[in-house]
Structure formats: C-alpha cells, structure tokens
C-alpha cells in the first residue's frame, strides 16, 4: 500500500467498547492479528477505534469521535 504521508492516520475498521478487553472488526471477522504501538491496546473509558499511522503501519487506539482518513481493501476470490 502507498500512503500520502507518514503523519496521516487511517481508520482500520475495528472498535473496542468502553472498559472492554475485546476488539471487534466491523465485518465480524476474528481479531487474530494486531500491530499496536506499545501501550496502545489498553482499556480506556471511551469507545475506541483503531487508526494506522502513516507509513509505519503501527496501530493506535483513539476515541471513535476523532476524524481520520479512510481506505478500502477488497477481498478478491
């Protein structure tokens, strides 16, 4: 994937409910892979979403109310 900037963040389509330890993908797929920066997968008192940071590909958890870029990945047969 090519990204516009190393400082741009992109929504990845997963959420974690407040005070929960379980991430859920929007499409219902199993959450079997993670690439969080250290300390970013902690329990927080708000609805969390995952963003990927620019060209590093590392993940951060942020409030879902924040605005970030999006991209689409399509599964092919």
Summarize the structure.
With 77 residues, the chain is mainly beta.
Task: Walk me through what this model shows.
The protein is an all-beta fold. Helices cover 0% and strands 29% of the residues. It has no helices and four strands. The protein has a four-stranded antiparallel β-sheet with strand order 2-1-3-4, with no helix packed on it. A hairpin with a 6-residue loop joins strand 1 and strand 2 (23-25). The radius of gyration is 12 Å and the shape is globular. The mean pLDDT is 80.
Structural class, judged by helices and strands? Answer: mainly beta
Low-confidence stretches: none
Cα-atom radius of gyration? 12 Å
How many helices in DSSP terms?
0
What is the distance, rounded to the nearest whole angstrom, between the alpha carbons of the first and last residues? 19 Å
| SSE order, one letter for each helix or strand | EEEE
Q: Summarize model confidence as the mean pLDDT.
A: 80
Shape: globular
Strand content: 25-35%
Q: How much helix is in the residues?
A: under 10%
Number of DSSP E strands: 4
- Can you summarize the main beta sheet? 4 strands, antiparallel
Question: Could you give the order of strands across the largest sheet?
Answer: 2-1-3-4
Write the layout of secondary structure elements.
Layout: E1 9-16, E2 23-25, E3 48-53, E4 59-63
Antiparallel strand pairs: 1-2, 1-3, 3-4
Structural features:
four-stranded antiparallel β-sheet; mainly beta; 77 residues; globular
């Amino acid at each position: 994937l090519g990204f516009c900037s190393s400082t741009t963040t992109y929504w990845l389509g997963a959420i974690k409910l407040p005070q929960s330890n379980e991430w859920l993908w929007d499409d219902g797929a199993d959450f079997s892979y993670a690439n969080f920066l250290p300390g970013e997968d902690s329990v927080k008192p708000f609805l969390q979403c995952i963003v990927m940071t620019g060209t590093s590909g590392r993940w951060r958890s942020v409030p879902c109310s924040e605005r970030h870029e999006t991209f689409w990945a399509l599964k092919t047969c």
